[in-house]
TrEMBL record, chains A, B:
<dbReference type="InterPro" id="IPR005260">
    <property type="entry name" value="Asp_kin_monofn"/>
</dbReference>
<keyword id="KW-0220">Diaminopimelate biosynthesis</keyword>
<keyword id="KW-0808">Transferase</keyword>
<comment type="pathway">
    <text>Amino-acid biosynthesis; L-threonine biosynthesis; L-threonine from L-aspartate: step 1/5.</text>
</comment>
<comment type="similarity">
    <text>Belongs to the aspartokinase family.</text>
</comment>
<comment type="pathway">
    <text>Amino-acid biosynthesis; L-methionine biosynthesis via de novo pathway; L-homoserine from L-aspartate: step 1/3.</text>
</comment>
<dbReference type="InterPro" id="IPR001341">
    <property type="entry name" value="Asp_kinase"/>
</dbReference>
<keyword id="KW-0028">Amino-acid biosynthesis</keyword>
<keyword id="KW-0547">Nucleotide-binding</keyword>
<protein>
    <recommendedName>
        <fullName>Aspartokinase</fullName>
        <ecNumber>2.7.2.4</ecNumber>
    </recommendedName>
</protein>
<dbReference type="InterPro" id="IPR045865">
    <property type="entry name" value="ACT-like_dom_sf"/>
</dbReference>
<keyword id="KW-0067">ATP-binding</keyword>
<dbReference type="Pfam" id="PF22468">
    <property type="entry name" value="ACT_9"/>
</dbReference>
<keyword id="KW-0457">Lysine biosynthesis</keyword>
<dbReference type="InterPro" id="IPR036393">
    <property type="entry name" value="AceGlu_kinase-like_sf"/>
</dbReference>
<dbReference type="InterPro" id="IPR001048">
    <property type="entry name" value="Asp/Glu/Uridylate_kinase"/>
</dbReference>
<comment type="function">
    <text>Catalyzes the phosphorylation of the beta-carboxyl group of aspartic acid with ATP to yield 4-phospho-L-aspartate, which is involved in the branched biosynthetic pathway leading to the biosynthesis of amino acids threonine, isoleucine and methionine.</text>
</comment>
Length: 452, 452
């Protein structure tokens, strides 16, 4: 018998109907031993996520006014779910009691207080799903992260899992009952409740999957699969049914919002396949992310882009004979607390690509001054409005003709290439272009590699 | 009236007939006020350059045996030239006397002694050319670098010009006579004769051209022009009649042996156009190297390649969030006294390209150990046998389709691209390929851009 950890995102739990879908999916496969849930998300576009309501509630409590209306809204959401699931009225009383008592908690540390409130969305989701499954006659229990041993660093809102968690959680594997587990939070060693960064339920699921050595970590969301390009940019992009961890990582970094690669990292580290699936269409194939892919129909699995970078360009005659030039440049960047993306270089020139948003006028001034005085370049330019486009595919650099297809597609669409970067053994090629060409570039690259 | 400094290379002065060609060229244009000469080069393939004979002579003298035979060979070379030019026998006596007395000089400092001997090739060339021109009734005089004020750093065999030289040499501009000047050497402030590195006559000419603010620096060699690719690799490569300093610099770096870009640097700094011409075919158009080119028939001016690089490849999950990763890697490279060529990067990986020859097993071991212990990469690989191919052309990155043509040519010839690097505002694109594909790549890129 296989062991599966499955996690359901916010839209999968947005209403009683969605809870029923989740229950159906959980019950459809006896291997789904651990079900991790998010807080109820949006039911439709204008709706508000429960987590956002909870944060507003905490803020209002801290501000000392306006909490009543938010409290009402939160309770209404859960009342609707409880009623829709046919759960007894005492469930609502429990939710209300916990919310109010937690609201009256210690407000001396702002971030801790917010964590303690915003985690309630997941706690209530998990409690209600477990109650519903029990009511329907199934052997599911609610397990609290504290009881399971999910120990995190004491960093409110940005907690990290501590290594001992894995050993502590491991016995869940042999639990006599199937488990519903709230995502998004755990406890510091001092007993404080602390939350992960956003996307935290994905992290919880990934940690649990790793800890119990699951055969697969099923991540249920509201899309059928990962697409080869952003569907807001490309009309009906190709579906990707298989990809590797590193492909996902590159795409996620390059602007794919469907995936939170860092959140899934604990599962990747433990080499547990991650299966992205759709709660609203459980029949669809989904996207399986694992160490290696078997389907190599496409050398490239995706095209992604990200706008608003800038390049600091330096040229200096005989630069390449000046030992330490690049290192000193990066030191200046680092001292200004900036991260750089890439550093393509010519013989006498070097460009550092940086997120435009991180280069405030003040930082820019300081960095340029230091570059001028310490590196004495012949030329020093800043170019803004650069978009970085990535084509990603494992081993594609070993296949001849990829760069030709990509540069051909860009050139045929009159897109000028400001930069190109492909390193040894890489599974991506980066193209630097003008911001305004970004969507056109994504469309042409998608069509070049996915036959449209 | 314009002012020209012209310099003749070794093959231009290999024999009396060649001296006559040089004299004819010098006399053909009254603007050629300063003529800089190399030592006599090879008359044919198996021949030995006079400079090499002089170095052998110095070595023999230092070793204390075998000098006589070399002395004889040197004197024969000059006897032939003197006789062929119809110069009086006393010229030969002068050459012999100087050679022997210099040979008996202070041998306590080996490198200094070698410099004092090997510089004689240029000195004799210049003295004999001046004597010949005088004999033919022209107002040329021999000017010694010491008298002209060519002051160099006291680094035997690797001297650098000192800034004051330019002011000291400047009056040559207004000399009443036309001048023959020996290349390759000058004097340190302490009066020691010191030689430039190899290619030093080019340096002398460039310094003189800059000092007298020449309108052009004519560099006479034995090729009609610079070619778009190495003629030993590409059959009848395209001729390049115009190029910019920076194009030349990139090509020279990338393996173009016809040009010594650093040697020409003093002229470039002073914005003096350099005209590469052929002593054996003075009618040919040559190649004019200047700040800007007017002929933009070709977006690319040349293709060059250089083999035997290696890449150190590191990958590490979340590398790009680790501030200072690239900088610390370059610090390790720098501490090992290595230079790197490029540093292409992906999201979680980075490659440093290094000349294979500089990475001895001992250095490699030390560098890899430090990388492992200080940067803890998930993966660390060294890939050898990498050739770097450059296509070069000013502003070509502003023209759409260059990358397409290049990657298309490589792909059509089944050449796999290991790396690509093109930075902002660059006038080159670098392709990293396998050594064994280098010549094929140069041919296909040449043909793609120069229509064959």
């Amino acid at each position: 018998m296989a062991l599966k950890v499955c996690k359901f995102g916010g839209t999968s739990l947005a209403s009683a109907d969605q809870f029923r879908k989740v229950a159906r999916i959980a019950l459809a496969d006896a291997d789904r031993k651990i079900v991790v849930v998010s807080a109820p998300g949006k039911r439709d576009k204008p709706d508000t996520k429960v987590t956002d309501l909870l944060i507003a509630y905490a803020d209002a409590k801290l501000a000392g006014s306006g909490a009543e209306a938010v409290e009402q809204a939160i309770l209404e959401r859960f009342a609707g779910i409880i009623e829709g699931l046919g759960l007894p009225g005492e469930q609502f009383e429990t939710v209300k009691t916990i919310l109010i008592s937690r609201g009256e908690g210690d407000r001396s540390h702002r971030a801790r207080y917010i964590d303690s409130i915003k985690a309630l969305g997941e706690e209530f989701s998990a409690r209600l799903l477990a109650a519903f499954l029990q009511k329907e006659g199934h052997d599911f229990i609610y397990v609290d992260p504290k009881d399971a041993g999910l120990v995190l660093s004491d960093e409110p809102g940005n907690a990290q899992v501590l290594p001992e968690s894995y050993e502590l959680i491991r016995p869940l594997r042999d639990s006599a009952h199937r488990i519903v587990f709230p995502g998004f939070y755990g406890y510091a060693k001092n007993g404080n409740l602390v939350a992960f960064p956003r996307g935290g339920s994905d992290i919880t699921g990934a940690i649990l999957a790793a800890a119990v050595e699951a055969d697969v970590y099923e991540n249920f969301t509201d899309v059928d699969n990962v697409f080869a390009a952003d569907p807001r940019v490309v009309d009906k992009p190709a579906a990707i049914h298989e990809m590797t961890y590193s492909e996902m990582r590159e795409l996620s970094y390059a602007g794919f919002s469907v995936l939170h690669d860092e959140a899934l990292q604990p599962a990747f580290n433990a080499k547990i396949p991650v299966h992205i699936r759709n709660t609203n269409n459980p029949e669809s194939k989904g996207t399986l992310i694992s160490l290696e892919r078997h389907n190599d129909e496409f050398p490239v699995v995706g095209v992604a882009g990200s706008a608003d970078f800038c390049t600091i360009f330096l040229s200096k005659y005989l630069m390449n004979r000046e030992k330490g030039f690049g290192r000193r440049l990066l030191q200046i960047i680092e001292d200004a607390d900036l991260s750089y993306e890439h550093m393509p270089s010519g013989i006498d020139n070097i460009s550092v690509i940086i997120k435009q948003s991180s280069l405030t006028p003040e930082v820019e001034h300081r960095v340029l001054e230091r570059i001028r005085s310490e590196l004495a370049p012949d030329k020093l330019l800043i170019q803004r409005g650069i978009a970085l486009i990535m084509i990603v595919g494992d081993g594609m650099t070993k296949q001849i003709g990829i760069a030709k297809r990509a540069t051909g597609a860009l050139s045929d669409n009159a897109i000028n290439l400001e930069m190109i970067n492909q390193g040894a053994s890489e599974n991506s090629i980066m193209f630097g272009i003008r911001n305004e060409d970004m969507n056109k570039a994504i469309v042409s690259l998608h069509n070049a590699f996915f036959g449209k």
